[in-house]
Write a structure and sequence with these properties.
There is one protein chain. This protein has four helices and five strands; from the N terminus they run αβαββααββ. With 134 residues, the protein is an alpha+beta fold. The longest helix has 17 residues. The protein starts with 7 loop residues before the first helix and ends with a strand.
Length: 134
């Protein structure tokens, strides 16, 4: 929810937009959102992390918007808020990601390889909901 249009200022300046983490969704819709995000991550053959943006309409239908393979990590970004809402420590999650990456890519030549097929779970906005007053 913002105090005006959901513009650049509202998105990137702390305090202008209110996020709800975890999202205010029932368990059935949360499961559908998570399944949609994982399906998109795997269908696009992504690796490591991604953030899937979705909309749930008033009838509970989940609509796919986009996948971001470089989710924000700033004070106003949804991914860190989702991690914190899950009860996990940002530093522990980030260290785990680095460890997973290093295990997957022991050989530096493999870093640019696209042979892996979605080998780790994506982050979803199932734990973060942005409401905008339009």
């Amino acid at each position: 929810m913002t105090d005006g249009p959901n513009d650049y200022d509202a998105r990137y300046n702390p305090g202008r937009t209110q996020y709800f983490t975890p999202a205010r969704l029932d368990s059935k819709i949360t499961a559908a959102v998570q399944e949609t995000a994982v399906t998109a991550h795997k269908a696009l053959r992504l690796r490591h992390i991604s953030r899937t943006d979705l909309i749930v309409d008033s009838e509970g239908t989940v609509w796919f918007l986009e996948v971001n393979v470089a989710p924000g990590m700033t004070e106003t970004s949804l991914l860190p808020q989702s991690i914190l809402a899950s009860g996990e420590s940002l530093s522990e999650v980030y260290l785990d990601w680095v460890s997973q990456f290093n295990q997957t890519h022991a050989n530096p030549a493999e870093v640019t390889s696209v042979a892996d097929e979605g080998d780790s779970a994506p982050s979803t906005n199932a734990d973060a909901e942005e409401l905008s007053a339009s």
